[in-house]
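Q: I have two molecules that I believe assemble together. Could you output structure tokens for the complex as a whole instead of separate predictions?
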Amino acid sequence: MSYSDKVIDHYSNPKNVGTLDKSKKNVGTGLVGAPECGDVMRLQIEVDEATGVISDAKFKTFGCGSAIASSSLATEWLKGKSVEEALTIDNMTIVEELSLPPVKIHCSVLAEDAIKAAINDYRKKQGLEELVFEERIH
Amino acid sequence: MLKLPIYLDNNATTPMDPRVLEAMIPYFTEHFGNAASRNHPFGWEAEEAVDYAREQVAKLIGSDPKEIIFTSGATEGDNLAIKGVYEMYASKGNHIITVVTEHKAVLDTCKHIEKLGGEVTYLPVAADGLIDLKQLEAAIKPTTILISVMYANNEVGVIQPVREISTIARKHGVLFFTDATQAAGKIPVDVNKDGIDLLTFSAHKMYGPKGVGALYVRRKNPRVKVTAQMDGGGHERGMRSGTLNVPGIVGFGQACELCRLEMEEESKRISKLRDKLENALLQIEESYVNGNREHRLPHVTNISFKYVEGEGLMMGFNKNIALSSGSACTSASLEPSYVLKALGLGDDLAHSSLRFGLGRFTTEEQIDYTIEQVKNTVLKLREMSPLWEMYKEGIDLNSIEWAAH
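A: Yes, here they are, computed for all two components at once.
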């Protein structure tokens, strides 16, 4: 199986690799996947509390090239979006952008889950109710 | 100048030796006869070439040429040996013993036998990949007709105690079949010294062409028979019908001869390179060799690099270095290697493994390049790995409730 150029580019030059300060109230962290399944993604957002806009996003991913690319792309898309807008990022948009083959769709699902988990963590820290998402089968 | 890409997947297949190709060429065009055409020179030439190749093949494994049945490869050999024995010895029993780390060609054939009403025992292996001989002996019952244990494993290269296994088989009057696809041509294999009753191997794993292999079937002490799995002209002593692949067989014979003559020196050279590669990669923190390192093929090493995923790791260099991973990120099941799991590796370590298969044409320069590339990529991906960060922070990864998906 060969990778698309965009996947290769994100893999070779990943955007926003790193760690944000988890103890900060305006940082939300999402950790999804499992080592047994061969991929774990940690996605973090830092939100400007005054405007509700995501000012920074970082990721670290254990997984294949598509998983790394999906999370790298997600962080790029998150920056500058409001938390509400971020919730509209759909895994299929990631699939299309990266031209992921069917066997790699789960990587994009994982990225979407990571975004939602990070937002929920942020909401929790802000004293807001956690959002309930539809269960999906990966 | 180093020529890229580098091929380090010699357990999957090997490039053909130019000397093998040279031997084959006349048998495509000039000497194209059917070896079964008994009444004209075209047939005689082909038959003569097949006879010669049969001797070359037999010599590699210390058998009589009459005991060699040409097949299309090891998968066919596995099927013919197991199904053929099961049918031929049905009056004696219906129980087969094999091992969980066998190749799919053996395991799936055994599954088929179970569907036919046969009984199969799948022996586990220890953490080093070796079977427990006491467990093997204890599994034998009055209905046992066959023990099927591979000579050496394709993923980790671990060599099973073949002589001890055959001694046990003999003691209990059970036939012993071994899939020697990875071992033949790489390490000394002798059907008489090793006490083997049936053995299969394939040309393309030993610098020969694809699509040809052999099944050795013992003729004396005891005389072994298998029921043919294909009906037809009764070629190969009635055990395998089908017009012989003469050029393929000629190439196979030549490949066997080269291996027999060059094995000793070649394995010394390759194992030295393998050790260099292995020792250098083991200097990376949290990297582990999978399988027994002593009882192992000279050209293989299987290493897990904890906290990085195998496929992601390969992507760092797979344009330039061809090898394979125990990670199964591409398979729909997302299941990592069943062989590594049978060795007791957690799924995480199985996902993190790479198999390096060196070969006749591997050079030191290629190994040096590989060491550098793999090292760099592991370090780079660890910087990107949340698991590595947690490990460095002293967090026990087992204490985290992972969301299985």
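A: One point stands out. The interface with chain A takes residues 307-309, 311-312, 315-316, 327-332, 334, 336, 346-348, 351, 383-389, 397, 400, 402-405 of chain B (CB under 8 Å).
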